[in-house]
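Objective 1b: paired records.
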Amino acid sequence: MTDDGRARATEALRAAGCIAAEEEAAELLDAAGGDRSRLEELVRRRCTGEPLAWLTGAVRFCGERVLVRAGVYVPRWQSQPLVHEASARLPDTGVAVDLCTGSGAIAAVLRRARPAARVLATEIDPVAVACARANGVEVFEGDLTSGLPASLAGAVDVMCAVAPYVPADEMHLLPRDVRAYEPRRALDGGTGGTEVLERVVAEASSWLRPGGSLCIELGGDQASILEPCLLGAGFDEDVRLADEDGDLRGLVCRFSGRRGANDATIRRPSAAAR
């Protein structure tokens, strides 16, 4: 492919509002494999807002190349700190579960970080299940924990969940291409955005061992909203993860095993631990 073809692709992407137009053009050039017509088609589709990962077939996540099929939620870089925290807490021969795994990105990274550990995942969407399996993930089809082997109850060291948490009445605020293409079920968290998160907390308490960790992605004031649910399920807040703007993006809690504790509030970490 000539430099002229790259320049035209970059110009078209930039005109369509792609911020990293030059980098995206390079990825689409690689995906086209030297076929000019194929490149033009890929650029056209990207200019309509179709996710880049769907067009190239993969995305880089925590240094891992993850396959992403069309129709599957695309892993975000904002989730990476949560994954790093989870991998640090997973014993070398421990057990980890990733709920709502989508493409299987988180499970794939955890498996790479702890090759001797058992890493499982669950996913309700059959298309995403197939994608996760293509990424080598041991995934069970089902809603949250419903598909997990019963033998793991009370034995899981780390449970992760990038579950839907966008408040239903704020879905219209998402970028146009996200609303137009990505699966709503992977984004819409219902009223207040915590409907699925509350179920994650409640179900996690039956699978984690005492001292195990629950790592969930969330936003806004959702940590405060979830506090009664976390407390009642036996969790103590351990680490808060913020993005570059200082906004809350993740919460890591330890499972004490004491469900329905009578403490008035969750025990929080010191500021240095956040």
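Objective 1b, second protein:
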Amino acid sequence: MIHPLLRCSAALLCLLFAAPAVADDTTGAPPAGPVQWDLEALDKAPHFTDAPISEPGVRGIFFDGLSWKGKPTRVFAWLGLPDRAAGDKVPAMVLVHGGGGTAHARWVRLWNQRGYAAIAMDTCGAGMAANEPAQKRLEDGGPPGWDASFTQVDLPIEDQWQYHAVADIVLAHSLLRSLPEVDAERIGLTGISWGGYLTCIAAGVDQRFKFAAPVYGCGFLGEESSWTPTFEKIGSRVAGKWLALWDPAVYLPQAKMPMLWVSGDLDVSYRLGSLQKSYRLPPGERYLAIRHAMPHGHPPGETPPEILAFARQINSKDVPLARMTVQGRDGRQAWVQFAAAAPLVKSQLVSTKDLGPWHKREWTVADADLDKTTARVTAELPEGTRAFYFILVDARDCVASSEHVEIGP
């Protein structure tokens, strides 16, 4: 059965890639994207103060956010610096949590242990207070987030959750750049689930980031995602307006930095087809790390080794991740050419004979033939294959994957 939103996909795509002016239209016609932020103001480091809470090695802070409904807001964040020699400047990361979550001190510590400064901010108006380890809604925290955003599209743009969440990411970046211990030209961005969604938008808004690594998150959410029932429920006008304003597909064509896409073939929220359309949009260098049956959430999204390897590749000219350069198929014989600097330990073909929603398909993993001399991987597709992709694994346990390929009847 074709979802009702798919029947108007052509019209929605026209809206998604329309001119950049945005009007707050409540008459029924979705506005054109993308939204514009005052980057001259956001590029300045926000004022921040210590929060009455800390954890080993990291400090809780509040920084000034944008006004919401005409009133000031503040953003809670964890901020941490690694051990370093006096006078050394270190690279840094901005960390964006997933839906239903909050800023995670452990995530900051993880990057500190790797030699990076890091900041993880709450994007939904929650904070933490002394002796209260759980997140708590702040009176001056700004708009509620995640799924609440579907009911906000008829509000003024500056009162909607994504407007504030993306601004918070840019402000956190500006705060890091202002620290004397941080190398402002070596700051990356990564986010998980809804944080990966925000990473896709922020990468198209803030061109100062050295690289971006969305985990799970992508665009084209009106075509196939866990929110397609929500779009159907809220109706075509509201759904179309939300997609035109806030689908990452609107912003990804402006993301020019190198990007690493990390996800799983069975991800229920951000599906493989929408992911592929998304990673094809940015004009910059692209790396894929699609793992078979990768779990969704924290901490699985914090710890894939590809993200650290990618950061070191970009910031320190370290050994790069492998990449598939060309791929093809002749009947049931499939192949990819690759470039790899680190030793490879495994090559695999991942295939499915199923059709239907990506997250419900059964995938089979089999060894593929790896020829290091010709930098080529080959495999014979099982009879009846409907989709497949290749995986390479190097000695660091870093995954590089090809694009998935669909085969018609």
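The chain has two domains: 4-316, 323-406. The longest helix spans residues 161-178.
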